[in-house]
User: Which sequence fits this backbone?
């Protein structure tokens, strides 16, 4: 569970720092648009939710939310759309962190 805590903690930290960056770049329409605000807010909230699951030992909930978020990130990276390159790079890093969480969360635990 220690590795999972580190991965989710890193995901949470990156997500919060991204929201701060979005706030600081809010006057640059080419870098921050409404889709960026929505996406980064969702990611920050779900990362905090995942950390609460790690702290409480809610393994099943962590499995579901981390898997859903990993799929969502994969879709965002695969489909051209409203997100600037810098956010896609950040989401790719988030996706790698979540891949580790998903692998750890779905690994069969010894009885």
Assistant:
């Amino acid at each position: 569970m220690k590795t999972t805590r580190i991965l989710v903690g890193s995901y949470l930290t990156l997500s919060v720092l991204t929201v701060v960056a979005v706030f600081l770049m809010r006057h640059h329409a080419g870098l921050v648009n409404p889709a960026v605000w929505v996406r980064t807010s969702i990611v920050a909230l779900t990362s905090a939710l995942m950390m609460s699951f790690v702290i409480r030992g809610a393994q099943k909930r962590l499995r579901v939310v981390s898997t859903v978020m990993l799929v969502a990130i994969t879709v965002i990276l695969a489909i051209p759309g409203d997100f600037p390159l810098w956010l896609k790079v950040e989401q790719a890093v988030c996706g790698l962190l979540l891949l580790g969480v998903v692998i750890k969360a779905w690994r069969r635990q010894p009885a």
About this structure: The helical segments are 2-24, 34-56, 59-78, 85-106.
